[in-house]
Amino acid sequence: MKILIVDDFSTMRRIIKNLMRDLGYTNTHEADDGITALPMLKSGAFDFLVTDWNMPGMQGIDLLKTIRADPTDPKLAALPVLLVTAEARREQIISAAEAGVNGYIVKPFTAQTLKEKIDKIFERLHAAA
Amino acid sequence: MQPLPLLTTARALCHALETGDQSAADSLLTALNEPRSRGLLRQIAELTREVHESFSGVVSDPKLVEITQHAMPDARERLHYVIVKTEESAHRTLAAVEEMTAATDIMLAHVQGLEELLVKDQAVDVERLQDFFFASKSHGQRIHSGLTEVLMAQEYQDLTGQVIKRTIEIVGELERGLVTLITHEWIDKASAQMPPIDPLAPQGPALRAQANVVSVQSDVDDLLASLGV
Q: What confidence score (pLDDT) does residue A19 get?
């Protein structure tokens, strides 16, 4: 399982990376915003994207919309995406759901929450497959 | 009784107009207007001086000069310090956690190995036990110093807290200075012209409870479930 972690704060990327490792996901890669993440996602054959919302350059919500709308790469368009963000307005959560997000975690969060959401995302994907 | 100069001039103007003396009428009209123009000019001069004085008052207000020249750059520097310090402390803590996680994993592997040996052989290998104790102590020390490092890294809270407090004071001083400059009317106009708030624009962490902002993960889960996610 190849995972991309996108956050403009290196400390948050490191926290998520360590939590993912504890959950058994060791193949993690990092990007600091949507603009650097997009070419990695297009060429890197990733299986899962964990992204922040509020970042300079391209924001997480725009990264989500961009990959969902990609007509050239069906695997990328269907990539499971988990938003981990301090953004907590109802409109924002609804907007992310409409854009096709698979999970949404508000910061500050716990390791248990991350585990539950990731488990839920993959259970659903296996059930649908 | 001496007729008023104004009345005299007015009568002379009437006479000049009746007799068709245009040049005399023109000079009398100018004479009539002159005191009024002087009054208006005096008022404009007065206003100009007031405006000028209030602006030079702003520029020379020692408090505002101090804020713009020193306090604002200072506040920027302080906030930058908070970023640097918090990032540093987070990495320091994370490095200690990574180190302790590795030590714990090795220790657990040792315990499991010893347990398997005891179950299989039903005998205590003294040399193996001594190795186990030695390794346990060494890894225990690693974990202990890691925890001390995590403890010490929390110093950033005290340091950044002080810095943020000072920055809040500077912003408060600036606010008070600006409020004295702006009339309530201007504030009303300015707020009436504010663009509408974009509900999707990033807001950062919610600093306090607000309507329409979810506060716990379970609220997010409920909202998403209602949307079928």
A: 87
Q: How do residues B172-193 score in pLDDT, each as one tens digit? A: 888 887 777 765 545 555 555 5
With bands split at pLDDT 50, 70 and 90, how would you rate the model's confidence at A68? very high
| Confidence (pLDDT) at B60 | 61
Minimal Cβ distance to A109: which of B214, B217, B223: B217
Task: Give bridge partners of residue A83 from the DSSP assignment.
Answer: A51, A104
Least CB–CB distance from A104: residue in B98, B199, B220? B220
Contact yes or no for A104 and B229 at CB 8 A: yes
The A residues from 48 to 67 touching B (CB cutoff 8 Å) are 53-54, 59, 61
Instruction: Give the model's pLDDT for residue A79.
Output: 97
Q: Do A97 and B212 touch (CB under 8 A)?
A: no
Which residues of chain B from 86 to 115 reach within 8 Å of chain A, CB to CB? 86-87, 90-91, 94, 97-98, 101
Nearest chain A residue to B216 by CA distance is A106
What is the pLDDT, as a whole number, of residue B58?
61
**Any A CB within 8 A of B220 CB:** yes
**What are the residue ranges of helices labelled H in chain A?**
10-22, 34-44, 60-68, 74-77, 90-98, 111-128
Residue numbers in chain B where pLDDT is lower than 50: 1, 185
CB nearest to B220's CB, from A9, A14, A106: A106
- Between CA A58 and CA A56 the distance in angstroms is 6
Phi then psi dihedrals of residue A6, to 5 deg: -120, 120
- A55-88 residues labelled b (16+ CB within 10 A) or e (exposed): beebbbbbbbbbbeebeeeeebeebbbbbbbbbb
